[in-house]
Amino acid sequence: MAAPGLLRKRDVNPRVFPRIADPARLHGPVLDRVWDRLRLDFTGIAVAALFFCWSLTPSLLPRDWLFQGLIGGINAAIGYAVGVLLSKAAHRWFLNGRRWWPLPEPWSTGVRVFTVVTSVSVSVVVLVYSAGWQRQIATLMDAEGTTTSGYIRTGGLSLLVGAAIVLTWRGMREIVRWIAGRLIRRLRLSIPKATTIAVTVVVVAAVLLVDGVLVRGLYAGTNQIFSLQNATTRDGAEQPTVPEKSGSPQSEAPWDSLGFEGRNFVSRGLDAQELSEVNGRPAKEPIRVYAGLDTAEDSDSRMDVVIDELERTGAFTRSVLVVVPTTGTGWVNPTAAQAIELVHNGDSALVASQYSFLPSWISFLADREKAQAAGRELVHRIHDRWLQEPEATRPKLLVYGESLGTQAGEGAFDTVADIRDTVDGVLWVGPPNSNRLWSQLVARRDPGTPEVDPEYASGLTVRFVDDPGDVHETSGEWLPPRILYVQHPSDPVVWWSPDLLFTRPDWLKEPPGFDRTASMKWFPFVTFWQVSADLTNAAGVPDGHGHNYGTLVLDAWVTVAQPAGWTPADTERVRDELEALRDTEGPEK
Questions:
Q1: What confidence tens digit (pLDDT) does each residue in 394-412 have?
Q2: 302 to each of 240, 252, 307, 372, how far by Cα in Å?
Q3: I need a labelling partner for 242 at 20 to 30 A (CA). Which of 204, 207, 297, 438 fits?
């Protein structure tokens, strides 16, 4: 016998209490037994189908059936919850007490059957259309598209995912009822008080389980996994022998201490002879300085090693000194590094330091403050040492960052004025939407300029570009030092934000950029999960789209650094060399 006030619908005799009989029942002994097992709400089914169909609409990048199935199931579960809430609200404030409700037979069964059949039919039709939408996005990005037959698997996976979420919620609800019932019987608490306590207990237990066990366990496990990877070396990466590289026999940063990405960074790139052959004039041996997590015990000691390495290699005598705050694992884009060295014919010094074992997406969620602190310490320590050099002979001090590296780089500066007072130029590629400076500049963009391609103060100090044509457009006054952001309209790293859950962003109100389909629309909850799924494939699309910027970094670097005597023909010559290197050395990551 259930406690007073906690009676369930199946415990109520509809002959005695006709107004509170279950409105979600199909009639007939077999159907009733099946429905007693499922206990689904018809309004929930209809709204779940609506949310599922919304999730099938285009987003920033093409999605395969697996990721679409996951976000389809998540959104269907959210839609079901919204539908149940709407149903309860309608019964409480509108339908309760109406003479014509519940509907008489056969209208009641007919409406419910119609709801189920229509929901399933519409979902299947939209699913077929969505395969075509995915092919359109793939064509826009010169990528391989999906097949309709293969994409149909999305429906089955979404059903499983959605069902799992609903069952989990029901399990939590049953635990609440169980706890509340015992509080009422044993402690004689009132129903509202017992229910409140039970909900609080379950919510706190769920938060502790997720945050205290699952998240921290996942964080510890991934840290262990990637720390093991950090101890390995990429195939083909060999210890440098020239003194201009960290990890060489002359270096104070031992080869074994640089980590996976650090060893990859110092072992790649063209030497002086190869640069001379490409550029047709004598070149210098490029300097690459790197400190791994194992190079020293703490960040201060690592910075000491970095400064010692810069002095040992003669970095302060080169024409440019480029500070590169890294991504989570310590990765430095090899195309960007090679582009800088080719442009300056080896008369350059690149310096980077590792601050984490974890990939950028995990660092973004768990280590954002750590990334900003690491970038701030790297830039400030190098800047302080750079100031000790004679102003007439010291190199240009520039900053380059990509992805989470832009967030680390921004951590070194409070304002645009701070940047201008500290360095001689900045290039930031693919900045995350949560970047503080980037967000402020975009929010304060000139009236009438779109969020996807904003203009700030008429481009006087900071500029934004989204394609190669814009990079070379330098009309109007652009005061040195130049600050440049490069961002693709289709890059989910740039446009993902929790605000997508409830707010339609400006970039989805305005005309799309060159590689985003105009068919993409904003839907509450749904668009957030769509763009979240796009994050997993951000770098998996061809060059020039998503989070894959390819040789566009070359054009951007030339625009920021302004090398003397540089011509468009030089840019194309270097681009050909970069593409050849990418073909021979393999992918960037």
A1: 999 999 999 999 999 999 9
A2: 20, 11, 9, 16
A3: 297
